[in-house]
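Quick one from the shared queue. A colleague (R.T.) flagged Cytochrome P450 as missing a structural entry in our internal table.

Convert sequence to structure tokens.
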Amino acid sequence: MYWIPAFIILGISLYWHYWRRKHKRMLQLAELIPGPPAYPIIGNGLLFMLNTGEQMLDLVAELLNTYGEYCKFWLGPDLNIVVRNPADIRLLLTSNKVNEKGPLYEFMKPLVGPGILTGGPTWRNHRKIATPSYNKKAVHEFATLFNKEADILADILSKKDLNKTFNVYFDVVECTTQCVCQTLMGLSKKDTQNLKNLKEVVLLTQRMYDTIFVNMTKWWYHIPMVRWVTGRQRTENYFKKITDELSADIVSKRRKAIANNGVVDDDSLGIVDRYILSKELSEQEIKWETFSLFTTSQEASAKIASAVLLFLAHLPEWQEKVYNEIIEVLGVDDSHVSNDDLKSLNNLDMVYKEVLRYLSIAAFIQRTVEEEICINDGKITLPVSTSLVIPIHEVHRDPRHWDEPLKVKPERFLPENVKTRDPNAFIPFSLGAMDCLGRVYATALIKTLVVKVLRRVKLEAQGAIEDLKLHVAISVKFADGYNLRVKPRKNGIM
């Protein structure tokens, strides 16, 4: 029986030599890029045997600090090249040679399939169909609904116990969920309140993201048998079931509404209606894209909005600046907030951008290099099939571009400070053809919500915001929630 392990070792050795010969060009180009020593077969897999997303952030930071703004690591046979240089990031993300998502996005596909979020052959056409629902014209049409739901949120917060600290995220996510359902999903409020699994999906979203992120970053969970033995596959199947049922209910309700009432206004048409009317997607594709755009719109908006409120609670001088500016621009009466009004709120914009810098919507993004492309003034060539890693969290904390990057300082977005900084060092919504589809929508929703809340309550919190622990699960958030207190304002004045 001694021949069995010998045969296995021989087979692995032969495959290893075959692989190296087949990928000779990749290996030659990789030699020119600094990075930690890699072992045969597993590469640098041992480096990534980490327990938390925070340790992943620390590891990437350590690699960049050790090897510079360009470095490589191997996950088995997958070559990953990390690029932190802002100019090259723009070059790469706007190039048609790097227009496909990386292999880690495969772990999202059980929930959302191939498409806008995960890439594949259909993403470009699916995005084109959905884009009109996210543009400025559509967002203008959604402003009335944003105001209405933000008023409800402000009323809820104004009735909270004055002395009780609470996690504002749970109230905010109820608001953003209603907004997304009644705009992008095209549903009525009554339909939204009766959606199958809606509350459960909203509450479990963070667990879903945690599960996906762990599968991405722990190499042993790349093996289906390991996920099955550990029970993770059972959990993933449950997530898939409840999200599929939610999406199916949304699509079913919109199909019935279209059949009964037709289509009224193209400018405010939701994405689900656009997909149904296009007749270019299968039923499964419509469900996948429905959940992709639902969860990325309501959950991300809730986290960012909650963080803006928390920043203001921790920064009372900025809260007063933002509040006084609201009164100056909009007046004392709690009137409708238009998109033009929002453009005049410069102090709010600075706080909003500092949130996007400090808490990246995506800590990392990964792309697959489809054609060789040169960076670093021609000194580095990225080989075909390389996984490009853009560490947005680290780019936003690079001390070469950000003074005291670990501190929260909205003033870094004053015009005179912005002028002195490379514009590509701030990429919260990514760049290029695969950038964030919902940036205009989310910005209007979040700022409207904050304006309405600040008109009704004053926000308070204890300690320094920089002391709050971060957690990474796809995006970056505060590990222990967005905890603050509120005090009602009377007649617009404290």
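The domain at 26-401+410-488 is CATH 1.10.630.10 (Cytochrome p450).
The longest strand covers residues 70-75.
Added to the table.
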